[in-house]
Amino acid sequence: MIKEVKIPELGENIETAEVTSILVKPGDAVKVEQALLEVESDKASVEVPAPFAGVVKEIRVKAGQKIKVGQVIVTIDDEAAAPTSAASGATPAADAFAAQSTAAAAPAASPAPPSASVQTAASTMSTAAPTPRPVAGALQKPGEIGAPAAAAPSVRRLARELGVDINRVPGSGPGGRISRPDVKQYVKSVVERRIAGPSVAGGLAAAELPDFSRWGPVRREAMSGVRRKTSDKMVQSWTTIPHVTQFDEADVTALEDYRKRKAKEFEKRGVKLTVTAALLKTLAQALRKFPEFNASVDLNTDEIIFKDYVHIGVAVDTDRGLLVPVIRDADKKGILDLSRELNDLAERARNRKTKPDELQGSNISLTNLGGLGTTFFTPIINWPDVAVLGVGRAKTQAVWSEGGFVPRMILPLSISYDHRVIDGANAARFLRWICEALEEPIQLSL
User: Fold this and answer.
1) pLDDT at 126
2) 141, 419, 429, 432: the active-site residue
3) CA 322 to CA 314: how far, in whole Å?
């Protein structure tokens, strides 16, 4: 019996679309849910699947044609015997796609079977293609070549946007056809392998550098252990956390006066009172006020882990690289104790005397670059934290107040946060709360 296949609903307020590719031809046997053609609207590109199995009798549209929802696109005989294609090892749909993709080129290599690993898929790429196809992106190795894989144009576009070599992606569809979920799963596996260890092959492989000695003298210096660890951690954080950075300014004129008044008192106790210590106290209070900043994301269980303790990591610049020792239970300590512990940890970090467990277990990090003269910047979150507070140098500025300009000490602050857990409005409230707390230094004594 001959049945008609019509264009289904494509989405809200979408009435028309354009046929971007036809994936079958008359005489092809198709299965239920097998892609017949791809259409693209102004909002998305989708594949139209077969609602039933059978043999294609007629195709009533052409590539590039504008079509409407409800229009007949294909007729299928659902009683016809399905011919086999065992000799070719691929479905007619895959053959049709390959024919379109290679009309002006040499035949494409056979796609990898659905169960193939990433390495197997890569090994099946044709190396005899007449025109090398440049490969770009973080997930590709420059200079590789390969024949077109069985994938729809929208899938190929997604792969390009994500920097993926489509030939490396194992296809789960008929004949190894690659779908959008296949591309996303491949990217996820690559990132996970990169997190597991930088030496894993086939992942986020570093691009091959040019020979810099062609243009002048160079020298090579091995990375220190701390530098290598920092590099791995920063890549892990940047590739797994969707970062957003919020900026604000705090009027710390009163805080600076408080610090100067208390400086001699603290020195008598062998402690140096710094702005960083005051920020630690304020940040600890803020984490109690905004618990979503005192959390971590568990993607394996789709849960957010809220912590009932407040441990703050403080970035310390050392000759070996960046270290982040952790001050534990910061919310339970006064400004004097925080100053003493901060000074001790920073000194031991610079003298290589910190213990491994003192560099672990932070809930949030604080990095102060004010001593180097910077203002705003975008610090990278120290995974598995969900936020990091960056501090710049306070400067005296003219501020309009009560009919005239007055000199005020203004401190620039930057908060980078994990947008999976923290919304922009809450980030703004969090940073504003910190600014207002710093403007009331009496809270430090309380």
Assistant:
1) 30
2) 419
3) 10
Entry pTM: 0.55
| CA pair distance 422, 424, nearest whole angstrom | 7
Whole-number pLDDT of residue 376:
95
Sign, CA torsion 10/14/19/20: negative
Position 44 confidence tier, pLDDT thresholds 50, 70, 90 = low
Residue 243 a catalytic site member? no
Contact 366, 388 (CB under 8 A): yes
Percent helix / strand / coil, the chain, rounded to 5: 35, 25, 45
Amino acid residing at 221: E
Give the distance from CA 83 to its chain's centroid: 45
Cα 61 to the chain's mean position, in Å?
40
3-state secondary structure of 368: strand
Task: Report which of 32, 36, 35, 40 is spatially closest to residue 10, judged by C-alpha positions.
Answer: 40
Nearest CA to 377 out of 362, 367, 387 is that of 367
Q: What is the 3-state secondary structure (H, E, C) of 71-119?
A: CEEEEEECCCCCCCCCCCCCCHHHHHHHHHHCCCCCCCCCCCCCCCCHH
Nearest to 228 by CA among 201, 199, 256: 199
- Overall average pLDDT of the 257-267 stretch: 89
Angle 125-202-208 (CA atoms, 0-180°, nearest 5)?
Answer: 95
Of 54 and 92, more confident: 54
In sequence order, what DSSP letters do the residues of 159-201 get, joined into one string?
Answer: HHHTT--GGGSPP-SGGG-B-HHHHHHHHHHHHHHHHH-TT-T
Rounded to whole angstroms, the Cα distance separating 348 from 359 reads 12
Report d(CA 428, CA 436) in Å as an integer.
12
Average pLDDT on 272-285 reads 92
Residue 1 to residue 356: CA distance in whole angstroms: 73
Measured from the Cβ of residue 229, the count of other Cβ atoms closer than 10 Å reads 16
At 352-370, the pLDDT tens digits run 888 888 989 999 999 999 9
User: Which pLDDT tens digit goes with each residue over 196-215?
Assistant: 554 433 345 567 888 899 89
Q: CA–CA separation, 194 vs 30, rounded Å?
A: 39
